[in-house]
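Case study 2.
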Amino acid sequence: MSHFIHNAPYYIAGSTPTALRKPRGKLLELSDLSHFLLGADTPQELMEDATQHIVEILGVDYCKIILLETNGHYYTRAAYYRNYIVVRNQANLPEGKAVEKLFNNVLDGNKLFTLNADEKGLTVEERLSLGLNSVSRVCILPMCVESNRIGVVVIGDGLGFSMDFQREDTRYLIDLITDQLSNAIHRSRINQQLENLSLETVLALSKTLETRDIHSGLHSKGIAELSEKVAMKLNCSPKEVREICWASLLHDIGKIGIEDSILRKPGPLDEMEWERMKTHPEIGAKIVSEISGLESLAPMVRSHHERIDGKGYPRGLKGDEIPLGGRILAVVDSYCAMTEGRVYREALKHEAAIQELINGKGTAYDPLVVDALIEVLSM
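Prediction:
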């Protein structure tokens, strides 16, 4: 984004609107702004970063993003002010009914709307909401994606910065930014809804496993907590951390396809039973791969019993052939299994389990993951 901040402010801070830094051709570079908007991990992060960048790109005093929610009301979701102190927290606050009527008119007309500080007929509440108590003018921009009404962007200037909203270059820039922001928020909201739906599915499947085998269900919850921390320690992205956590909850989901006589046997498995048990990673991977939104978990679920030296199962993967999530699960799963114990095997103490992991570095386990888990457990 620093590329855009460097090239896009066409107005020098504190200068008049006519002092353009770059010719109109440079405006086309802002078409790449969508790459930044697509890179945000959550809708809230997207909006918080966007307000600051819009202030810097347009050279205005402040920017607020106000969304129309499903209940029909407007809420300020992000705000950024350049040169003055915010008197109250303006994030996630509902807007007044009078201002909501104004926003509805802007969205109905789907065009830019400006108000000056000396505008008559505005209440104190409206002036405060629009920021006209601090700036001399506000511009309200509609955010729509086809028939979807997203909300409005409110930008204010005249305190220390000003721009000519009638200039063709300015209007082009504003339209481009608003269009990209609207689409990014719309996409982010849809993705968030899909993620919430996926999480509900993960929890339902995890509950199904717990109902079938209470030990496996509780075991998976413990692994999920540790795996999440290890993934964060290894600097995984928020999306990767989330998926590793979900895969941890479902890593043993394939056991619902294993016969009770094997799954609940109160002792060591014989050779034939063990071969049958070793099919549960493939069964689990098949289950999650056929559920919309969970397909990306399949490789981790399938590989959580693979070994770095290639002697694991079900596919004998080795080294980096094993997804990072699978390598994390292998280490955390082993630690939890050793410290929890089994009916036929006493639990190991923490120190003994750690020593087993250290002994297996480079053969059974990824050394970096083992070190990360040790750091997490020592915190």
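Confidence is low (pLDDT under 50) at residues 1-29, 85-89.
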